[in-house]
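As a warm-up, study this chain.
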Amino acid sequence: MRLVLAGLILLIMERVVFGRNIISPLRNAKTTVGILVAGLLILVSQLTFMLSVAASNAGTAAIVLTLVPLICACWLSLTEKRPLTIREGICFVLAASGVFLIVTKGNFTSLDFSFEGVLWGLASAVFSAAYSIQPRKLIIKVGVGPVVGFGMLFGGLVASVMNPPWTMNVQWTALSISAFTYVVLIGTVVAFWCYLSSLKYVSAVIVGLMVCFEPLSAYLLSVFAFDLRIGLWEAAGICLVLLNVLVLSLPKKSTKAVKP
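Now compare it with the structure written out below.
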């Protein structure tokens, strides 16, 4: 239901706000198949992540998900002969270490590396890497709106067939409606649109590294919302994740010789 509503909102915005023809991309069979595949990848990546959380815990699932940029780098090195750079390797270590410290708070026994939990987590990382790579050419060709909108709509419809939302016993109150609306608009529409829009400008490896900001942002919001105190381990983790961005922002050395 969340994906269906998010997809419809994106398509309506694309047509009404931006005045674009949302049907024209579907006239090309190859483009349509690509959009449907993107939708399935989004759905399966979300599903496997939730299964990983259920089989272990949120911290374990978040740490396994930091493998996304490494998987992207391995795939690109195989398909495009693009080796993992030293900078990207350093950033991967910084980001993964930072997330590890944030979610564990220094208590390393809090993690539950059960076989099932890690297996679902690895599956989620693979599918997340896939939807960071697969739709890039489509987004450049037809734009973010149609790809994400129709992709989410299709993925949501598949999920609704598998688990009909109308069969769930949900108590709709003002608070639950507000929370659901927030999840759809901010946590789905805005989050996925921004995430996949970035694929037009940077590589899937760098986009994957930005995934590590999810536990950081969640933790910082919790600090402000619930008046939590930042401990030494969490502060160290925050510094490592931010250092990851600093390293990425450093200008690349020019290989051209300087003329006298």
